[in-house]
Amino acid sequence: MSETAMQSSTVRDAGKGALLVLFLVTMIDMIGFGIVIPFLTYLVEDLTPENQIANIGLWVGLLMTSYSAAQFLFSPFWGSLSDRIGRRPVLMVGLVGNTVFFTMFGFANTLLLALSARFLAGVFNGNLAVARAYIGDVSTPQQLATRMGLIGAAFGLGFTFGPFIGGELSNPAARWSWFENTIFDSHPYLLPCAVASLLSLFSLAVAYRSLPESLPPESRVQSEPLPWATRMGQMMKNSASMLKSKNVSLIIWVSMMFIFGFTIMHAVFILYTEMDPVNGGLAFSEADNGRIFAMIGITGIVTQGLLIGPLSRRFGSRRLIPVACAITGLGLVLVPYTQATNAWSQILLVAVLIALGNGIFQPSSSSFLTRIAKSNGYELGVVMGAQESLGAFARILGPLTGGLVWTLTVSRDWPFDYHTAFHLCGIMMLLASLLAFRLPALDDEDSFLNNAEE
What we know:
single chain, about 450 residues, Growth Hormone, Chain: A, 18 helices, globular
């Protein structure tokens, strides 16, 4: 019997019901991340004391960062726990946490309570790694790529629907009379959080009924897990070694710069769009911002679903990466130059540029990293783990930096005013693009492109 056949025979295949549950878990993870984006700035403004109004940008950055920081710190714990007790209970605990802490965030009446709820939601939202491990348990090598693509699709849909739900359902008492003088009037951001909790509760019920355990007892780790500090130390050591590696360090640095510049936007985009036009903003509502982020998500889905294949075959991943950085950077720099008189036409064009660049960059950089790691004999798990850790670190620093820069510059004069944070996004994308031109050629890709041209 061949090695592939032996591997296939030891895999416990999953039915459609189990894959649907994983799809829902991942999508709700991203809904939980994205649902707060349209109204987070408004919530911070409502909860900020008058004597601290200048710190709104910093608090927005902290709330955005806390979620990613919690996921970064606790994902290894959930992954290790799932290796010992199985994937199913860990996934279900995560859904319970989602249900509780989404609701807690909607009821938050102080900044510290909101920060605590957001951090705890991130703690329990480390399900993505466990969902990927589940798919690895139940998939043959031939099925793996397609089923991992299911996670990617759920990721994109969650980021599309999350901001849309958060924007459309925010402050319902101001839009629909039947919500006046209710709890949704005194807590204007409870409704979208309650919807996210109900979605999580629905997924929990489906998981309880339809999600079998993927990891049999004989395959579970029996030894005591490594201490958290040891595990984090190993992760940092692996990340540092990859940054020093001559062959793969360049693409990892490019990815880090891209993610850092892109996530600065998460903190400052709505700080700009909700600002009064007299001060240069667009006076957008929560619903307006939710629609913009939904458009970004839809454009990203179309780009990754329809465009990336033909573009990759025509130009190759190495050539697409610097172009993607440049397109994204152009969109980010143009954000604060939109005019309130033509707000929608201009901001939609900017959103398409941002989403198009990001939609090209993500699969291109992942493909290039995979190929160069394999061609140089690196263990793919170590390389991808290092890249994910460093990317998470960039996602933590990005919103915090954006909020801090906004706080320090928003009241100043040009060029160091509210444009500054977006200029910083552009600088990071320019550096990433210039560095990407130094990426080494891949023999298999160049050969493929040459044959295609002939």
